[in-house]
Amino acid sequence: MAKTEMRPIKDTIPLEEARQLIANAIMPITRRERVALLDANGRVCAADVQSMRDVPPFARAGMDGFAVIADDTFGASRYEPKTLRVIEKVYTGQVPTQRLTPGTAVEIATGAPMPPGADAVVMVEETEIAGDEVRILTPVYPRQHVGRQGADIVVGQTVVRDGDVLNPSRIGALAALGVAAVEVYARPTVAILSTGNEIADPGQELQPGQIYDINKFTLSTIIQEHGSVPVPYATAQDTIEALDEAVETALREGGCDVLVFSGGSSVGERDLILDVIARKGEIVFHGIAVKPGKPTAFGTIQGKPIFGMPGYPTSCLSNAYMLLVPALRSMARLPPRHMHTVSLPAGQRIVSTTGRHQFYTVRIEDGQAMAAFKASGDITSMSQADGYIEIPAQTDIVEKGQIVDVKLF
């Protein structure tokens, strides 16, 4: 392996500039596919869907009772009921066979098709049955307790639109049309490549000097949560040749839309990710004025985004939330992520690093935001936290009792 120089990060860029540079390089996905309606929740619709039928497709009873001609009930009361002859019973799933004429009624169940000639339904509670007759105890007006044909959806109506995120109610609307499959945008595929001779997969025996791979699993989970498909690859060794081959496999042979390196973006002599990106594409930036996560790189190869995440688990996961998630959601055509925020007093004094925008993890105890952050290499800085606060670059101290905005995971 060729010797490389230590490359300290001399210049860092503000977080917002990094976000904008990434946003400029992201293109919404254009691939489409058809998925079964049962598998469509959370997917983004790729074409307008217009109704080919009315919903409901027929006028139907809105109550259990008797379908009548409203004029036949005029003046009805408990003291002077109107008596009608029952000519049929209609349940849901059945079709009436007889037409109502003055003086007749049809016993009907909620949701059943209205018989021809009927224009209202008297609730069963407002009737008395006597053999093949029914006494009407209260009058009804035309269309009372009747759901009209097309009351929900009419022929030609656009039910979902290109770009709509499919949720239970939209899927229900498609089901009402009889749609069994829907055209959606494909999910971006994201190659995850852990680097380092010291990395071992869980389930293996650790050799001296090795640690288990955490980032492959945290990144896979966060990618899946935000509309994309994680594609983990085998850990790459710290050589230019191994990394070159890994990039070719992921982007060309695997056809992945995004590549995320974990580790190898810092300043050590074996941190070769920058060399690989520079040889094959373009480095957009290296180094962000944030804590944790300063040694983060971003570039493009063959027009595809390449993220070089820090190897420390908290730094990697923190920057995945701040940088990777917005990019993936934009590429997947999902709306921006909105985190729930609560305002609480800081439970202790927090000293920050001036000049770096800090994401400081906290847990909520007794209505206060208590420090959870330990170090960039400690995954429990995140796993034992309820959320995080942001400390601006120009702020060096958050005093105990100061109100802070906690963004909940």
Gist of the model:
With 409 residues, this protein is an alpha+beta fold.
Which residues form runs of ≥5 with pLDDT under 50? 1-6
Return the CATH class of the largest domain.
Alpha Beta
Strands in their spatial order, largest beta sheet = 7-4-6-5-9-8
Determine the mean pLDDT.
92
CATH superfamily of the largest domain: MoaB/Mog-like domain
- The SS-based structural class is alpha+beta
The major β-sheet equals: 6 strands, mixed
CATH topology of the largest domain: Molybdenum Cofactor Biosythetic Enzyme, Chain A
Shape: elongated
Radius of gyration, in Å, reads: 32 Å
CATH architecture name of the largest domain = 3-Layer(aba) Sandwich
Our measurement of the CA-to-CA distance between the termini, rounded to an integer number of angstroms, reads 42 Å
